[in-house]
Amino acid sequence: MKKLLILMMAMVLAGGFVFAGGQQEAKGADEPLKLVLLVKSLGNGFFEAYADGGKEAAKELGNVESIYMGPSTSTAEGQIEIIETLIAQRVDGIAISANDRDALIPVAKKAMKAGIKVISFDSGISLGGRTVDLVPSESELIGRQQVQLIAELCNYKGEVGIVSATSQATNQNLWIEWMFKEIEKPEYKNMKLVEVVYGDDAADKSYREAVGLMQKYPKLAGIISPTTIGVLASAKAIEDEGKQGVVQLTGLGLPSEMQHYIENGTCVQMALWNPIDLGYSSTFILEALVTGKVEGKPGDVIKAGRMGDIVIGEDGLSVMGAPFVFNKDNIAKFAAMFYELF
Amino acid sequence: MKVAKNFKTLMQKREVTLIILIVILTAVVTFRAPGFIKINNISRILNDTSILMIVAIGQFFVILTGGIDLSVGSIIAFSGMAASMMNQYNPALPVVLVLLAGIVIGAVLGAINGVLVTFGKVPPIITTLGTMSIYRGFTFVLSRGQWVTAHEMSENYMNIPHGHFIGISNLIWSAVIVVVLTYYFSKYTRSGREVYAIGGNKTAAHFVGVSKPKVDMIIFSLSGLLCGLAGVMWTARYAAAVNETAAGFELQTVAACVLGGVSVAGGSGGIPGVVLGALFLGIINNALPVVNLSPFFQMFIQGVVVLLAMFVNTLMGKRQEKSVLKRRCS
Amino acid sequence: MSDTVLKLENITKFFPGIKALDGIHLNIRPGEVHALIGENGAGKSTLVKILTGVYFPTSGKISYKGEDVSFKTAIEAQEAGITAIHQEASMFPELSVTENIYMGHHLKGGKIGALSWRQMKKQTASLLNRMELDINPDTLVKNLGVAQRHMVEIAKALSIDADVVIMDEPTSALTLREVEDLYKIVRQLKAEGKAIIFISHKFDEIFEICDYFTVLRDGKYIGEGRVADHNIDEIVTMMVGRSLDQMYPKSDVEKGDEILKLDNLSSDGVFKNISFNLCRGEILGFFGLVGAGRTEVMRAIFGIDKITSGDLTLRGKRFRPHSAKDAMRQQIAYVPEDRQSQGVILEMSIAKNITLPQIDDLSTFGFLHSKKEKEISVEYGSMMEIKAASWNVDADTLSGGNQQKVVLAKWLSTKPEILILDEPTKGIDVATKAAVHKFVSDLASKGLAVIMVSSELPEILGMSDRVIVMHEGEITAEYSRDEADSDRIIRAATGHAWAEGS
Which of these CATH numbers, 3.60.10.10, 3.40.50.300, 3.90.226.10, 3.40.50.720, describes C6-242? Predict the structure, then answer.
């Protein structure tokens, strides 16, 4: 596998040099824009899905070539090297999912000085190192959506428990805060969030806590687990306790790992940001910046194909939207995408 | 009179204090959560404790010689991952073979620990601290960071721990078999006796011709073997082989041993104590989620209960000492 | 000379399982060297620990300079002016001589109470100078030799302006010349009006340097008196509590055929050119100072330590053991010196301890025969008259004497033809000691060949058919039972054997 990585790296670099060679000659007017998606590392199914989104966007935009790159291990150094090469190649735009939000600033600035548009997505670069930072979603959207999902599953009534990661996990705690705000809305008047338990992202503890919830609340109607191991262990616990269909489950999980439970109905639907959409939107934003349709100021609106309008907010932050919902109909497709290629 | 005296000596056994503590703990929890002693919950607790019990027994033999095996969690993760992947890529392979493979892989990793301790002359705590990271690293390399989950496992694989035989799950059966075999090993075999001898007094054991390298190889391989079994059980039970499987589990196994009256200095302790120690921890683990307690208190309570149990244990130990004195002075 | 500086009345100390001291009286006067006499295990060391605040007496009264005191820590005793030079050097090898000497009573200087190392170094230098020692105060203790360490230990005791100095077997690791130096220091202290408690079981030393003595036996006070008014026999009788015949019941035995022979056996840096023979029915005594290499020779015969050159002949055949198992197969048994750390396994039952050397023979395919095991442990346990509630109690519930019997039973159960005993009676009570001697003598009379390593001269003289003396890794003398006397043996052990002119 390592060999394959090196081979890929070599191919990418070789391709780059060919580009660089071509670049020296005058750039034709009809030559496509070169927009790069630079990911944390190669060989990860999740990241590879970005590339699919980028290609999809390129096709829709026309006159855009989407290039997918990444270091073999997730280090900032590896990304810096690649950006240096990209500067030499004079690509038109780079969208980066950063391994370090600060370490990439100097090289990103250098790229911008050379006239390349730089944005970050998913895992952002600090202000100054990019024009726009595309955030996959935000706490409010995630939290509210989780409650909506479970409410749909248990017909807007009953007790719901939450299996979180550690009690100190900042993002989980924020999402949970929003869940509590969402459930106060009148349509959830017959629902109650009874307890938050912590599975510490360990299979055994999460399982035990999920079982504990079901024991403690015999009328439990649903479990929300906004963490990958948590939702997996909760699904197994519901199955083992024979409560499929009685206790509903939703959460944030990887499609490839949850396929079994989504297909057998233990977890009818769950959410996660769709990496394809991320690559797709990033490419649209880059194209808009490169062609000068927008400058990337707060308030600018970018028309991003099927994703609709993306608004650029304070500090260049923009939010893609609510997480993507996975269910029986689309899980197989996405699960396959999340699997590794080899 | 004689009965009273027998009762007193019985009370001084660690196993007995632990049983009493377990009864008290269960009573307190049941008072707060009445469903706690229902049959299906008891089987739930036993299922949940079986893996800890199996691994703690391996740990027990290592501690008995005065060593420690910090790599148990990583061996569980690796062998569990390896077995799961074997099942993932060859779903047709009989699961008995997969189970055996997991056990063998665990035993091999344990034997590597043994070789490092014996021939590398590295103390067990250092050796296993190193292999703890190495084996965890192997797990990542093997899985390429990916998980194996329910979808990729065959029904047969997931049924390894779940299958039943006369109403009792295979997981519990496997723990029972391990307990019985290791009890016999510790009590009635030459090697078992040698483990105690090395732990009790290395030099004295050397002088009677007991080979420490041999004993080290046996105990580390045994610990690894049991971790291999636990690894398959773990991944099949939770239908998930993740890279972080059983991280931090080594401390629980050590705690189970110490609770069970195993001296960390080596030489003393027994299988019944370890079984009860593991059971005690298992009950706490399962009780905490069902009693109405802020999750922020859980860790605190867990620590307090364990310390309390230890304290009662040493207190009983002191009383035992005194009674020996009395007996001898009279 | 008449006023008492330190007075102990009716001191008693219990340990779990042992009554270590029972009604001890002691009167220590300034300007006097007071010998505390008793066999190993008589309670001398425990008494020293009570005097220096390490242990707290269970009952009794200590008065010091006319006031009742109870030292709760070693520092308290030190500050009051009682200091001890311990039997086993209690030094910090990684620290310098100065740091060791002032450990626990650092000199402070300046306002903020920082340690004044300059001051301490100066005083250390003058102290070492006064003791006529050529040691640099900055040297790390690990770089010093055994004797030098001991002198530093003494210097440490003297660095406190003490009124009472306790010396616990101070000469055990010293050469003759160093012993002379020590005597000089003792006399100097005496002249300064300090009280000295001198612990030793070597009578030559007691008669040389001590003024007064107190005898302890089995933790009890036996008697006291002026050294000048008594002779050795009187003191030995007080110390042993029975006549020498009872203590050392050696029966005369016809020597059998030779069973073991060593020719120039050497181990690099440990011992060299060791040659002797051993016959059936014989008790061969091995005497020497600590570090003379006796134990190492025994370990080599038993296959534990390496042999670099020379030959071993066993029953007429060449024999080269590579492990304890090899030696055990040849019916050699080795009862090691330190019972607690090398002999008995405290956490194991008596029965399991006894059968441990034979578990290979007691098992088939690794499974033990419990019944046979039990038979053996009962047979040899009863033979050694071990006193215990049951054969299944752990060895740590037994007294030192009974533990030693367990170790002996363990080895006798292997039916040895050669029995090597290393300090067989160290630290056990007098009754058990006599019993052990009787067993050994009986066994020898039945044809067992016995090597007995001992540092106790009376034991060597009382029990041996022949005595071999070692000094610094070499054999310096060999005496028959008739030739052996304490003077000759001591001289040989200190490297002066051939100075006799013989």
Answer: 3.40.50.300
Question: In Å, how far from its chain's centre is CA C154?
Answer: 19
| Distance between C397 CA and the closest CA of chain B, angstroms | 7
What structural domains and CATH numbers belong to chain B?
A: 2-329 (1.10.3470)
Q: Chain C interface, mutation test: which of B185, B188, B201, most C Cβ atoms within 10 Å? A: B201
State percent of chain B over pLDDT 90: 42
Rounded Cα gap, residues C26 and C60, in angstroms:
12
Pick the most confident of A85-94, C199-208, C363-372.
Answer: A85-94
C426-482 pLDDT, tens digit per residue, is: 767 667 788 888 888 888 888 889 999 988 777 888 888 899 988 888 888 888 888
For residue B63, give every residue at least 6 positions away whose Cβ sits within 8 Å of its Cβ, in sequence order, or none: B254, B257, B262, B263, B264, B266, B269
CA distance A84 to A25: 20
Show the tokens assigned to C393: 């109690």
Residues in B touching A204 (Cβ below 8 Å): 48, 51, 234, 238, 246
Q: Closest Cα of chain A to B291: distance in Å?
A: 8
Domains and CATH numbers, chain A: 2-136+275-320 (3.40.50.2300), 139-272 (3.40.50.2300)
Contact B150 A235 (CB under 8 A): yes
Chain B and chain A touch, per 3+ beta carbon pairs within 8 A: yes
Residues C236-253: pLDDT tens digits? 778 877 666 677 777 777
Cα of A141 to nearest chain B Cα, Å: 26
Task: Report the SS3 class of residue B12.
Answer: coil
For C132-168, write each residue's pLDDT tens digit.
778 888 888 888 877 778 788 888 877 877 888 888 8
How big is chain B, counted in residues?
A: 330
CATH class (in words) of the domain with range C256-331+417-431+449-497: alpha beta
pLDDT band at C33 (very low <50, low <70, confident <90, very high): very high
Q: Cβ contact (<8 Å) for A43 and B149?
A: no
Q: State how far the Cα of A234 lies from the Cα of C251, in Å rounded to an integer.
A: 82
Average pLDDT, rounded, for chain C:
82
Residue C413 in tokens: 């159960």
Q: How far apart are the C-alpha atoms of B212 and C299, rounded to whole Å?
A: 18
DSSP string, A81-113: HHHHHHHHHT-SEEEE--SSTTTTHHHHHHHHH
| Closest C-alpha to A227, from A261, A260, A271 | A271
Q: State the Cα–Cα distance between residues C198 and C227, nearest whole angstrom.
A: 13
Q: Determine the Cα–Cα distance for residues A227 and A199; give it in Å rounded to an integer.
A: 9
Backbone angles phi, psi at A188, to 5 degrees: -105, 20
Query: For chain C, what are the domain ranges?
Result: 6-242, 256-331+417-431+449-497, 345-416
The span from the CA of C429 to the CA of C436, in Å, is 11
Nearest to A290, CA basis, from A122, A127, A133, A112: A112
How many C-alpha atoms does B28 have within 13 Å on its Cβ side? 12
| Interface residue A130 vs chain B (CB under 8 A) | no
**Helices B14-32/B295-329 angle, 10° precision:** 150
In eight-state DSSP terms, residue A132 is E
Biggest CA–CA distance in chain B, Å, is 71
Q: A204-241 burial, b if ≥16 CB within 10 A, otherwise e?
A: bbbbbbbbbbbbbbeebbbbbbbbbbbbbbbbbbbbbb
Name the band, by pLDDT with cuts 50, 70 and 90, for residue A12: very low
Q: How high is the pLDDT of residue A236?
A: 92
| Chains touching chain B, criterion 3+ CB pairs below 8 Å | A, C
Neighbours of chain A (3+ CB pairs under 8 A): B
C374 — phi, psi (to 5°)?
-65, -45
CB A244 within 8 A of CB A261: no
